[in-house]
Design brief:
With 259 residues, the protein is mainly alpha-helical. It is built from eleven helices and three strands, in the order H-H-E-E-H-H-H-E-H-H-H-H-H-H. The protein has a three-stranded mixed sheet with strand order 2-1-3.
């Protein structure tokens, strides 16, 4: 029975996960094809030269078995990727491709919660280690909002796939874009739509949430943000915290101030 994306993400600390089988560690069940993703880290000394070892690794990477199929979205659009890239920084994909799971044997992983557009940008980062927004050097007002929304979606991808590296890269990119001034000298921060995306796909203590809150407090307008009510409440809380640090006391208030 295939394991779901949600079940894999809930494994948490993967080193404590034990397969429900009686076979010895790293013993491949009969009738199945071994996966290099499940091989032990410590291998017996090889008689291959360094160049031969590199060639063998590349051949394994670009062989048919090094490729897997992603079925993305509810309509299961097919996307192809190399397992080496998918598993490098992602505990989710590393677990999914273990030989104990059906996905590790069929080399097919279903991702019903993702969109093909977001996955295309996610895979582009895995292969090139560059986010697709990094070429943006100037901002044209609210036209930057879709870029923030894309980055928010990629951050949530990192949350589901347990990929902390892309999450860190996304937050750094959000900060970079937020520091670029448009032709009128205005700097833009993520909209409430970006906040909705991140709040819908992250836990309460998420660094992504905290960054959006701070950006809105520092750069936002004077209105209470709409969208997800949790975002509005968090912004108000941070504002109250900042007011309390001013140590404003009742005795300092004067009636004349209100006229």
């Amino acid at each position: 029975m295939p394991v779901s994306q949600r079940e894999l993400s809930s494994l948490g600390q993967l080193p404590h996960f034990q397969p429900t089988t009686n076979r010895r560690p790293n013993q491949v069940p009969s009738g199945t094809t071994p996966s290099y993703d499940s091989l032990p880290n410590k291998m017996a000394p090889s008689s291959k030269t360094p160049n031969e070892a590199i060639n063998a690794a590349l051949l394994s990477h670009f062989s048919a078995y090094g490729v897997l199929t992603l079925l993305v979205g509810e309509d299961e659009q097919k996307m192809i990727a190399h397992s080496m890239h998918l598993t490098q920084d992602s505990e989710f994909f590393a677990a999914a491709l273990k030989i104990e799971w059906e996905e590790g044997q069929t080399r097919i992983i279903k991702l019903p919660e993702e969109s093909t557009a977001t996955m295309a940008h996610y895979l582009s980062y895995l292969y090139g280690r560059i986010l697709s927004t990094e070429d943006i050097k100037c901002v044209n007002g609210k036209d930057i909002y879709p870029c923030f929304d894309l980055l928010a979606s990629l951050y949530v991808c990192g949350e589901r796939f347990l990929n902390r590296k892309i999450q860190h890269a996304v937050l750094a990119e959000i900060l970079r874009l937020s520091s670029i001034s448009d032709k009128n000298g205005v700097q833009w921060c993520p909209s409430t739509e970006s906040a909705n995306i991140i709040y819908a796909g992250t836990p309460e203590d998420s660094p992504g949430r905290r960054l959006l809150i701070d950006l809105y407090v520092v750069k936002g307008d004077r209105s209470i943000p709409g969208g997800d009510s949790r975002f509005s409440a968090d912004v108000v809380k941070v504002l109250f915290d900042k007011v309390h640090t001013l140590k404003l006391k009742v005795k300092d208030l004067k009636v004349e101030k209100y006229y």
